[in-house]
Specification:
The complex is a heterodimer. Chain A has helices at about 5-45, 50-55. Chain A is an all-alpha fold. By secondary structure, chain B is an all-alpha fold. Chain B has one domain (about 20-190, about 200-245): Four Helix Bundle (Hemerythrin (Met), subunit A) (Up-down Bundle), CATH 1.20.120. Chain B has 8 helices and no strands. Chain B is elongated, with a radius of gyration of 23 Å. The relative contact order of chain B is 0.15. Classes of the chains: A mainly alpha, B mainly alpha. The interface of A and B includes residues 10, 25 and 35 of A.
Chain lengths: ~60, ~260
């Protein structure tokens, strides 16, 4: 593909675009996974939200 | 039973997590498909411009970035209004999630504009009204993020950021009309005009597909950012609950002794 004498500027623009958006996507996915893992850890230790406690019948009943 | 409005039902964080969990994959897939098609049009179908040659290909990403950089701030302003007036926490979640995404698109508009400016204007940067006002928009985004991270109290941070978000929205008409109000190196608007676009349809269609594709990507990223923020707030409240529980157990056992 011949993009003429200014090809470097065109490729650089698209490269920066791809890098920044890819970094944003990766950061958001990583952040979400990290938060989910921490929440799962807390819930596994029996820490629950008030709404969940209200919805769950007490043990032994 | 009280009747909830549609907005109230959708704005419930639990309902939002359910609904967004279902919508997000479809939104991301639609964004990816449209962006891929727009790139195909840009590189294999769109002809070179009669004046700018192949550098017009930069327009297909530069213009959507500039639009989305501005739209992100408009979203922050609307969310800030919703938070200040209706006190709904999801409005604050929306404002917080939009800031880094809007900042990324504002940065991309400046970076790609600079790379387009060098071969066309002979310089990477000039302090003209359009470029400078766009740079101020980027600083506003950075200011919002810095302000929020500097305040530990989430409620106070939300309120202060909402005020700054509403005050800062005045930059948007300045950016939009800067090319009309001042004599700038940047070209005037050629798509969103009262008398219709002045770009040839061969270049306009790839641009519109690109704009729609990146807009969908923006909304997908914003939705993901909001989901993360809801999880972060849940995590904080659970951590506080655990700390409270840890405090009460020793005092209760001491009382029993």
């Amino acid at each position: 593909m011949d993009l003429g004498p200014h090809a470097a500027f065109i490729w650089a623009s698209y490269a920066i675009y791809g890098l920044v958006l890819a970094a944003l996507v990766v950061w958001l996915i990583w952040d979400g996974s990290r938060l989910k893992a921490k929440l799962a850890d807390l819930e596994a230790r029996g820490v629950t939200r008030r709404s969940q406690r209200a919805a769950t019948p007490p043990r032994g009943s | 039973m009280t009747q909830q409005s549609l907005t109230q039902r959708l704005a419930n964080p639990t309902r939002f997590m359910e609904l967004s969990g279902w919508i997000l994959p479809w939104l991301a897939a639609a964004a990816a498909a449209l962006i891929a098609y727009a790139l195909y049009l840009a590189f294999f179908v769109a002809p070179p411009d009669y004046q700018q040659g192949e550098t017009v290909k930069i327009m297909f990403i530069h213009v959507p970035a500039a639009w989305l950089g501005m739209m992100g701030y408009a979203l922050i302003a609307v969310s800030s209004f919703g938070y200040l007036v209706f006190r709904h926490p999801l409005a604050d979640v929306s404002a917080k999630a939009a800031a880094p995404i809007g900042a990324a698109f504002a940065f991309l508009a400046l970076a790609t504009g600079s790379l387009w400016g060098k071969p066309m204007w002979g310089t990477y940067w000039v302090w003209d009204a359009r470029l400078t006002s766009m740079l101020i928009l980027l600083f506003l985004y950075l200011g919002l993020m810095a302000l929020r991270s500097a305040i530990e109290d989430d409620a106070l941070a939300g309120k202060l950021c909402a005020v700054l978000g509403l005050v800062g929205v005045s930059i948007l008409p300045i950016i939009k009309f800067s090319v009309d109000w001042w004599n700038t190196l940047h070209q005037p608007a050629s798509v969103i005009r009262m008398d219709g676009p002045t770009i040839h349809s061969d270049l306009l269609w790839p641009l519109l597909f690109s704009a729609v594709g990146f807009s969908l990507l923006f909304f997908a990223l914003h939705m993901k950012g909001m989901r993360n923020e809801v999880l972060r707030r849940r995590l904080e409240s659970l951590t506080m609950a655990e700390v409270d529980r840890a405090r009460t157990i020793p005092s209760a056992s001491a009382a029993a002794e």
